[in-house]
């Protein structure tokens, strides 16, 4: 119907604004997380890069990857926490069924948030979209538990 629902990126927008306020207040080392969306900046209290765990969408008590975003935003879109809430844009009302989790790392949390939602709505093709978009990295888990990272994702796994 041509309508736009911005609620899908409000969390990323709010975290991004909070990070701007914290940065303007003179802080260069911080980590903001809200509902799983993350903005990192600088180092943690141990003077190490912040680390972020990517959860197993089939067992959310398990971490399947640890990444070091180094000042970037990290957002995961998926069906495991809130159920099917991102729908196929070409068959409205049909949920995306072939992937269960897609994590995007972008220059900031707002960029990661908008691209994670868009890429998830693309289903299997979403990871190629992330791969082809400069400045983004991603990691997708399909319905069978197969994980596919973008080419540069491995660099984020090194402390």
SSE topology:
Elements: H1 10-24, E1 30-34, E2 37-41, E3 52-56, E4 59-67, E5 73-78, E6 99-106, H2 109-121, H3 126-132, E7 137-142, E8 147-149
Antiparallel strand pairs: 1-2, 2-5, 3-4, 5-6, 6-7, 7-8
Helix pairs in contact: 1-2, 2-3
Inertia-based shape: globular
Roughly how much helix do the residues carry, as a percent range? Answer: 10-25%
At CATH level 2, the architecture is Roll
Could you tell me the radius of gyration in angstroms?
15 Å
Average pLDDT figure: 89
* Named CATH topology: T-fold
**Strand order in the sheet with the most strands:** 1-2-5-6-7-8
Number of E strands: 8
Structural class: alpha+beta
Q: Quickly name the level 1 CATH class.
A: Alpha Beta
**The named CATH superfamily:** ApbE-like domains
Number of helices: 3
Largest beta-sheet details: 6 strands, antiparallel
Note the gap between the termini: 46 Å
Give the strand content.
25-35%
The arrangement of helices and strands along the chain is HEEEEEEHHEE
Describe the structure.
The structure is a single chain. The chain has helices at residues 10-24, 109-121, 126-132, and strands at residues 30-34, 37-41, 52-56, 59-67, 73-78, 99-106, 137-142, 147-149. With 159 residues, the protein is of the alpha+beta class. A six-stranded antiparallel sheet has the order 1-2-5-6-7-8. The protein has a two-stranded antiparallel sheet with strand order 3-4. Strand 1 (30-34) and strand 2 (37-41) form a beta hairpin. The longest helix is centred in the first third of the chain and has 15 residues, at 10-24. The model has no long low-confidence stretch (mean pLDDT 89).
């Amino acid at each position: 119907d041509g309508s736009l629902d911005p609620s899908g990126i409000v969390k990323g927008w709010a975290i991004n604004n909070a990070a701007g306020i914290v940065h303007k207040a003179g802080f260069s080392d911080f980590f903001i997380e809200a509902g799983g969306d993350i903005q990192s900046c600088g180092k943690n209290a141990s003077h190490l890069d912040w680390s972020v765990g990517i959860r197993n969408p089939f067992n959310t008590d398990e971490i399947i990857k640890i990444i070091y975003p180094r000042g970037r935003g990290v957002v995961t879109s998926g069906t495991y926490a809130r159920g099917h809430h991102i729908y196929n844009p070409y068959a409205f009302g049909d949920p995306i069924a072939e992937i269960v989790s897609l994590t995007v790392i972008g220059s900031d949390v707002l960029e990661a948030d908008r691209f994670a939602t868009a890429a998830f709505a693309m289903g299997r093709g979403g990871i190629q979209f992330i791969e082809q978009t400069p400045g983004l990295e991603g990691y997708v888990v399909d319905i069978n538990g197969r994980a596919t990272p973008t080419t540069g994702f491995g660099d984020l796994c090194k402390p």
